Automatic annotation (TrEMBL):
It comes from the Eukaryota. Keywords: Coiled coil, Nucleus, Transcription, Transcription regulation. This is Protein AF-9 homolog. One of its GO terms (biological process) is regulation of DNA-templated transcription. It is found in: Nucleus. The chain holds residues 5 to 161 of 222 of the full protein. It comes from Scheffersomyces stipitis (strain ATCC 58785 / CBS 6054 / NBRC 10063 / NRRL Y-11545).
Length: 157
């Protein structure tokens, strides 16, 4: 469908990770002994009433090569991956939009680099006694000169 000139729509999004230190009680029998943390990396719109599923085909999370099948592909919300591990590394979060004449969506894929955090920023003053870490960042998906179809999807109530 036609593009709307001089308009751009920003969708506020959050991405990042939560992590907890593994205690003996939280370990599963299958958890490798050298894994010290359980973490979840995620991507989501800030507002719960925004539905991006008509636009997003999948979100991929590219993990460190030490993980089996490091590229994890999530096709519907919640867009997140939970794993256990021992180290921090950079995760590439890639938003893949539907392409196709019928939807009229033709946005470039959007890429985010997230440094997975397992440890508190200041180990002398951990934010949470139990070793929980939350590293959540804000960004905006910007749709420049959206097609009429994309405009409708992003502005409907
Ligand atoms: C480091 N450069 O040395 C980083 C690499 C890799 C993290 C961290 C293990 C995964 C698994 C895992 O936590 N890898 O064994 O399944 O700190």
């Amino acid at each position: 469908s036609k593009r709307i000139k001089f308009i751009s729509i920003s969708v506020p999004v959050l991405y990042g990770n939560h992590a907890i230190r593994l205690t003996p009680e939280k370990r599963k029998p299958t958890t490798p002994t050298d894994h010290t943390h359980e973490w979840t990396v995620f991507f989501k719109p800030v507002l719960n009433n925004i539905d991006l599923t008509p636009l997003i085909k999948k979100v991929t999370f590219k993990l460190h090569e030490t993980y089996e099948n490091p590229v994890r592909s999530i096709e519907k919300p919640p867009y997140q991956v939970t794993e256990t591990g021992w180290g921090e590394f950079e995760i590439i979060i890639k938003i893949h939009f539907h392409s196709g004449a019928e939807l009229g969506v033709n946005e470039k894929n959007f890429q985010i680099f997230h440094g997975l955090r397992l440890h508190p920023f200041n180990p002398q003053h951990p934010t949470k006694e139990n070793g929980e870490v939350h590293s959540v960042l804000y960004d905006e998906l910007v749709f420049q000169e959206p097609t009429e179809r994309v405009f409708e999807i992003l502005t409907r109530k």
